[in-house]
Amino acid sequence: MTTRTGIIAAMESEIRDLSSSLEHEGTETVAGREIRYGRLEGESVALILCGCGKVNATLSATLLAAHAKVSRILVTGVSGGLAEDLKVGDIVIGDSFAQHDMDARPLFPLHEIPFEGFSAIGADADLRNLLTEAARAMLLFTRPPGLEEARVSEGLVVSGDQFLSSSEARNKVLGALPNASCVDMESAAIAQVCRAAGLPLGVLRVISDSADGSAHIDFAKFVEESASIACAETVRHAMRALAR
Questions:
Q1: What is the pTM of this model?
Q2: Is residue 106 a contact partner of residue 169, using CB atoms and an 8 Å limit?
Q3: Residues of the chain with pLDDT > 70: what percent?
Q4: Which CATH number describes the domain made up of 76-243?
Q5: Of these residues, 43, 186, 209, 233, which one is catalytic?
Q6: Is 14 a catalytic residue?
Q7: Which of 14, 112, 124, 233 is catalytic?
């Protein structure tokens, strides 16, 4: 039985390099989202640009699961660093996911998804290990500009419909989730879809800032010239490993 990998990114710049190297086999638009089918390093894939935020992420992941019939989902792109030892250019592979803005108290505990009985969702162990090794291989063989001293780690990725751009917002999230490694606006929502659909999930995030508004780099330039290359090359390494 042929397997297909779904690949999701929030911004066009995060998925452009992968799209350009895709052996394109077809495109269809469903519910306002374009799904591009093809082969990447010999493996069947479906690429989707989801847009920012948990609703967009949920829609896109559901389309990949229910319409494109993917066997697994990979998420790629940038995020804000929360862990003290993370620097711009470092890579985080998600080992678990939670929504930092889920708050239905006093009916449910902070961060718990109402009526579901859980708050954190674990990544698929095999995909987590695959992406960790792929990221290390990318740094060994490619190492794009801006990632000269980059390190790879695994950790909790938290998501919410808020772009953290102040120390106050950053500290509020860390106060409630002190073990969080990085923050984005999509991964935890995709994780909930994957859990419901029984799909393995792997998440790759390149740190682009400290989620406090203090970034000393040109964000757009870093994504275009550094992070997008790192993401694409890591995914390619992962696809090669899956093909073996």
A1: 0.96
A2: no
A3: 98
A4: 3.40.50.1580
A5: 209
A6: yes
A7: 14
